[in-house]
Write a structure and sequence with these properties.
Blueprint (H helix, E strand, L loop, with lengths): L1 E5 L9 H14 L2 E3 L9 H7 L1 H18 L3 E3 L2 H16 L1 H11 L9 E3 H9 L1 H6 L9 E4 L9 H4 L9 H8 L3 E2 L18 H17 L4 E4 L2 H18 L7 E3 H8 L17 H8 L3
Parallel strand pairs: 1-2, 1-3, 3-4, 5-6, 5-7, 7-8
Helix pairs in contact: 1-12, 2-3, 3-4, 3-5, 4-5, 10-11
């Protein structure tokens, strides 16, 4: 299986762990990922909040490169995934937007490149049966709170990926890996991703609520598919401890990190050292499980 892989701007910085674990899992499962030459920033929340046209033209600049290669695009970052899907949607529904984007890019793009989150590739193209056949370890009953955030499943008419209020895709994969998914009400609550730098007070409050509910539900870790969610839920635990006196000590890990462990990829190759809240107990649980 071969896909165009859009790493996104955070792949070599704040989400290096997401990037390296995605590449490791892809290699272990025989998935070929080809990085488009000359890809550019998708604009993320900054472009979306600034200018509607810009928020479409920026991702379209990378999508048109993938169109030339006649490949589907796979994305691990939920924010990049969302912007790519929105760009396709806007271009397909509006001739005016398509013409404006074509003028900016110097060529036409029709919005036809299929965009998938890496989780979709795992569940739909590979399948849990093939994944379990290649497992070296299981999650050993690890209690996992699956957190989807805002951008992976919303808006539903654009992403068309899972239920926007009660998604289960992460849960299904966690179960297949031998973990215990948890029923908890905050799986799609906003963590304040777009306010990470401008309103940290709001982010601290939102992440505290999510972490508190995960802890109350018995979670041993929270699994995510979005770098903004990961860094908020991970890093802000230090602020919560300082400002509120609460210590959750909750590891926030990417689904690719958990899957990588189950496939026998050494923890040192999955970016665990980047976490603010260590995941040593999670790693030990998986590596000691049959």
């Amino acid at each position: 299986m071969k896909y165009a892989y859009f790493p996104g701007c955070s792949a070599d910085s704040t989400a290096r762990d997401m990037h390296v674990s995605t590449l490791a899992v892809a290699k272990a499962l025989g998935i070929e990922l080809v990085e488009p030459k000359g890809w550019t920033c998708c604009g993320a929340t900054a472009g979306h909040q600034t200018d509607r046209f810009l928020s479409v033209a920026l991702p379209a600049a990378s999508l048109v490169k993938v169109q030339d290669d006649n490949l589907d695009m796979v994305v691990s970052c939920a924010a990049c995934y969302n912007r790519m899907k929105v760009a396709n949607h806007e271009i397909q529904k509006s001739d005016e937007m398509r013409r404006s984007v074509a003028d900016a890019l110097g060529r036409d793009y029709d919005g036809s490149v299929r965009v998938k989150h890496f989780l979709e590739i795992l569940l739909e193209d590979i399948g849990t049966e093939k994944i379990t056949e290649r497992m070296k370890h299981s999650l050993g009953g690890l209690k996992v709170a699956c957190y989807y955030g805002c951008l992976l499943v919303r808006p539903n008419d654009v992403t068309k990926f899972d239920d926007p209020e009660n998604p289960t895709s992460l849960d299904r994969l966690v179960t297949a890996l031998g973990g215990k998914e948890l029923e908890w009400p905050h799986k799609v609550e906003c963590c304040g991703g777009g306010l990470s730098m401008s309103r940290t007070d709001v982010v601290v409050s939102l992440t505290d609520s999510i972490l508190e509910m995960a802890k109350a539900s018995g979670a041993q870790c929270i699994v995510v598919g979005c770098p903004m969610c990961q860094i908020n839920l991970d890093m802000r635990q230090l602020d919560i401890r300082k400002q509120m006196g609460k210590s959750y000590d909750m590891p926030i890990v990417y689904i690719t990190q958990l899957l990588g462990l189950c496939l026998g990829v050494p923890a040192a190759q999955l970016g665990f050292e980047k976490l603010m809240i260590p995941a040593s107990d999670v790693i030990e649980c998986v590596e000691s499980a049959g």
